[in-house]
Design a protein that fits this description.
GO terms for molecular function: ATP binding; transmembrane receptor protein tyrosine kinase activity. This is Protein kinase domain-containing protein. InterPro entries: Kinase-like_dom_sf, Prot_kinase_dom, RTK, Ser-Thr/Tyr_kinase_cat_dom. By secondary structure, the chain is mainly α. It has one domain. It has three helices and no strands.
Length: 63
């Protein structure tokens, strides 16, 4: 979930775009689990301190 959804429990077009980006990441990594080393209770802090999913190796910069 997007950080604003975790903190405010409000969905928006911005949170939808973030979620779509995570789905694209899962596709480009052939089904890897995003943020697999982050516990759910730590996710909001992880995201609000600037951590993001890394660009997959086979993902072109244009995408």
């Amino acid at each position: 979930m997007a950080a604003e959804v975790l903190s405010d429990k409000r969905y928006s077009s911005s949170s939808d775009v973030w979620s779509f980006g995570v789905v694209l990441w899962e596709i480009m990594t052939r089904g890897k689990t995003p943020y697999e080393d982050v516990l759910p209770e730590n996710m909001l802090n992880y995201l609000t301190t600037g951590h993001r999913l890394p660009q997959p190796k086979n993902c072109p910069d244009d995408l």
